[in-house]
Amino acid sequence: MKGIHPSIASHKLNVFPAARPIRQKIRRFHPDRQRVIQDEINKLLEAGFIREVSYPDWLANVVVVPKKEGKWRVCVDYTNLNNACPKDSFPLPRIDQIVDSTSGQGMLSFLDAFSGYHQIPMSPDDEEKTAFITPHGLYCYKVMPFGLKNAGATYQRLMTKIFKPLIGRSVEVYIDDIVVKSKTREQHILHLQEVFYLLRKYDMKLNPSKCAFGVSAGKFLGFMVSQRGIEVSPDQVKAVMETPPPRNKKELQRLTGKLVALGRFIARFTDELRPFFLAIRKAGTQGWTDNCQNALERIKHCLMHPPILSSPIPKEKLYMYLAVSEWAISAVLFRCPSPKEQKPVYYVSSLADVETRYSKMELTALALRSAAQKLRPYFQAPSDCTETSPFVAFYTNQI
């Protein structure tokens, strides 16, 4: 596969000069796992993604992890190499903002690059630093592999470079997630033509079997986006609904993580999660109480009919309700297209720590400040004309 030309993008490790190379000792694998590893090596060799190497300074082990449907994924443990590399601070887009800009569109196309990371070449000077050991030999990557510390930043930099003329207008990109958005079918055809032109220009290949063209809705960055708005992913709801009461602290933390990911869709979310935070402090299952179980049931009930979040409309007024309690401050931003219709845009909630001793009025002011910081991008409309500036009404009311 031809892939991206090195003059356009290549992955450089920039290993710290003082870092001492580490060569991991080979791990032992069951014969069945060895066959899985060898099959993967053969595929990578045939594709031209790896090559054999001798006397490498850095050496990592492969790891075989289970996939869905009983299959296996072969990865490389680059922990030591990653620790010797500085962090690439290239910015990633804010997920909430690009999800907002994707919803409300009449037609969408979701694109998936064919072995996207492997389309970016490694810098020749760094190829052998990616060396890994298997029961059948030593190899290194000629292309950017998964597992490297800054691989995501390198990929995002390339995508930003390729789609720069279209990002924010007809295309949104988050690393390897690409969506083309349009109001109408006619616009969408033109937008796809622009995208395909850029893909051909940079020799970026797509995987047709994983692309969806001209659809009205789809999953994007963990959310369901459509012309109606933003909905919680059914997979996330199913994961919560099927989760039994946790048996230990690790399971409790895992459950809490699943729930935090859904916080945008649940009003006064921090209030609902407070029993979980208290249980974690009490070392897991010993702290799991009836309050925890009741809170979990309330959240499950809410997720049975989660709200459909809307995107702000230019020049349309925005409203915000505030709510305070003993231990939390909350807010909801919403549109009001008609007197009888309220469409939530974003729920926000945060724990109050030492502020729990504040008066009701002080907590309300804190809630306003916290919400204004969290929701700042929604309020950054032009201020030179009152008609284009968002009008925000604040109410100390229950959400």
TrEMBL record:
Xref: InterPro entries: DNA/RNA_pol_sf (IPR043502), Rev_trsase/Diguanyl_cyclase (IPR043128), RNA-dir_DNA_polymerase (IPR053134), RT_dom (IPR000477), RT_RNaseH_2 (IPR041577)
In this chain the Reverse transcriptase domain maps to: 46-225
SUPFAM superfamilies named in the record: DNA/RNA polymerases
- UniProt-recorded name of the protein: Transposon Ty3-I Gag-Pol polyprotein
A GO molecular-function term, please? RNA-directed DNA polymerase activity
Pfam family, any one:
RT_RNaseH_2
Coiled-coil boundaries: none
Keywords carried by this UniProt record: Endonuclease, Hydrolase, Nuclease, Nucleotidyltransferase, Protease, RNA-directed DNA polymerase, Transferase
For whether the record's keyword set contains Nucleotidyltransferase, the answer is yes
Gene label: TY3B-I_723
Per the record, the GO terms for biological process are:
proteolysis
Keyword Transferase set for record? yes
What Gene3D superfamilies is this protein classified in?
A: 3.30.70.270, HIV Type 1 Reverse Transcriptase, subunit A, domain 1 (3.10.10.10)
Instruction: Please give the superkingdom of this protein's source.
Output: Eukaryota
